[in-house]
Design brief:
4 strands; 6 helices; Alpha-Beta Plaits; globular; alpha+beta; YbeD-like_sf; 169 residues; UPF0250_YbeD-like; single chain
Length: 169
């Protein structure tokens, strides 16, 4: 029994062998190219993000040769539509997430942006929570019915009009 406990302590205390998949992924993110790895052109952050996504996918055993579009970078709505046609069928249910600064007024702004396109969203389809330090708030709306890809683009555009938005997922 003492040998077993000693072996368990050695594994737990080891910094070279991650204990969980989540820990392995966190370590890969910190080492991944694009965020602290190769030097990148600061004008092309979406390139770094795409390469990091591919590296993480490959490390997790998934196909790293997928197509990733980073909206807000150089990708146009037409680029997004081209990819969307390959992976989505409308009508469909889809959720929207925005992270930004503010409180309940920010939540209402995000909900209003979605409702302005798709109509009323039931209160049970809206969740929000503050970040661990309280600097940001994450707002999830949906899933709600989306009839076509133009609605998705319109919702993202409406959410982006709020200057407190930091990220849209």
């Amino acid at each position: 029994m003492a040998q077993l406990l000693g072996a368990m302590r050695t594994v737990r205390g080891s910094r070279t062998s991650p204990k969980t998949r989540g820990e392995r992924m966190r370590r890969m993110v910190t080492r991944a190219e694009g965020f602290g790895g190769k030097k990148r052109d600061p004008e092309v952050p979406e390139e770094a993000l795409r390469e990091t996504l591919s590296s993480l996918s490959q490390a997790a055993g998934r196909n790293a040769e997928t197509t990733n579009i980073v909206l807000g970078g150089k990708a146009t709505p037409d680029d997004w539509r081209e990819l969307d046609e390959k992976v989505n069928t409308y009508p469909m249910k889809r959720g929207f997430k925005a992270i930004g600064t503010g409180g309940e007024d920010f939540v209402q702004s995000v909900v209003g942006a979605v409702e302005g396109i798709v109509g009323d969203v039931p209160p049970e389809k809206v969740t929000h929570r503050p970040s661990s330090k309280g600097n940001y708030i994450s707002v999830n709306v949906g899933p709600c019915w989306i009839d076509n890809p133009d609605q998705v683009i319109a919702i993202y555009a409406a959410i982006k009009t709020d200057k407190r938005v930091k990220w849209i997922i």
